[in-house]
Amino acid sequence: MARLRKFVAYRNLKRPYTRKSKYRKYSYVKANPVCRIAKFHTGNTKREFEYKISLISKDALQIRDNALEAARLSTNRTMERKAGRHNYHFILRTYPHNIIREHALASGAGADRFSTGMSRAFGTPTGIAARIKQGQSVFDLYVNKENVDLARKAIKKAKYKLPCTCRIEVKKVK
Question: E strands, the chain, where?
């Protein structure tokens, strides 16, 4: 598999020109990449909890789906091992809709013979990303009072996996 391009190339928000239509001739994007996020709700979804810990973005940007999944996994693993499966409810609040395209140019010896240059440079879909607004909640973690410190540590681990600066907010629900 080819290496992923650095996300600096896609981080800034631009108007997405990735039209998907149910009619093939109007659809500019011919393939829709698969979302790599396994679950959006984990833990105990039935129970109500006292506290809500949120990871809120300070920037407006795009976040690739594999970064969201890595952050989700690290937080979920920490909470599941230390607090137990039934003592939290973890929600991923964003869904990656925006299709990331890449126009790969040939490089190296003899590349000029089979490279098309910038003709038909719309690009092939390589992945998907979520568009995050400034002040938007990316993750929410619901816990009771005895697990608030653990939840803050778990959310802090997720913060390091994301390509933006974030703040952690603790609110009492009840």
Answer: 41-43, 51-57, 61-64, 89-92, 98-102, 124-132, 137-143, 166-172
